[in-house]
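Recap from last week: sequence in, structure out.
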Amino acid sequence: MLHEVIKKSRAYYCVECRKCSSICPVTRVYGKFSPASIVERSLVGIDDEVLESNEVWKCLSCGLCHEVCPSGVDFLSFTREVRMLARERGNTGIPTHEGVFESIEHLMAEGEVAPPSLEHGKTDEDADTLYFAGCLPFFDTMFREVGFNGMKIADDVVRLLNHYGITPAVHYGCCGHDALWNGDMKLFEKLRKKNVAMVKERGVKKIIFSCPECYRTFKMDYPEMNAELLHISEFLAEQKMEGEADDREYTYHDPCRLGRHLGIYDAPREVLGRIGVEVREMEHHHELAVCCGTAAWMSCDWKSEEIRKERLDEAEKTADILITACPKCQIHFKCTLSHEKRDLEVKDLVELVAERIL
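Predicted structure tokens:
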């Protein structure tokens, strides 16, 4: 059953060096998990054990293993395909927050999201530039108590676009990222087809994203896309801007999807540099940046918390303010900071840029 998965992911080339396990953040905090051991069990034909265990749901799909694998095994593809087969057997893992986000995905696959009003940004629903704001209104509702303000991110994105002469259309809805990485291909296909139809109906030429997961999904998993796709950091890196330095120290967290999945490391740093921010790098950065601890709202437990604490430790040793370019990373960091007192502030890239130039 796993033969095609093994072939597609190049798992046959695994030489059992275990470099993947040596760098895996989950293995570091939970020694029972190992990317290599899952691959090895698949190679020797123990399909039932692999598909019926909980191990495959512990992977963060952060991509660190792929950075160090000498054989080029695509563990991300392997994990995604195995989860799809596991789900077909009724093994669906343990979603966080009692599955509320999975329910939201199903709701958005069937209906439309009433667009919330922005406080300052100006929009035009007939524009040929679209800001795909994703699930920010729902995240706002769920995580406002930990200090997350998703609609401020949306408002700041639109205000920045306005500042550079663009009055965009705005769309709120799920891209299907979480369904895809949780093996629910039926739900993912519904969301994908719905979004592709929406883009075609609007006739947009450019789509801007503030969420790396949405951007990654549109760019790598929506083959029908004909519009230009840009993360907001890429758009801002093309614009003229300047800001004055202050006496605070800043560091930048590379989101897994924006960094390792899409290879975008320079644009956010270029933008920060132009507004007067000198980025102090943490111990692990760029290709080796550590994950925020959770992906696709799966397995957000004590292991995720330990990984998150390790990352916050690095940030706290390095700077006063941690900047990221992923709303979910911000949510996860702020969740930990809500019950841990640390001398560290977390902000989204667009929030800081808006503060400096608007």
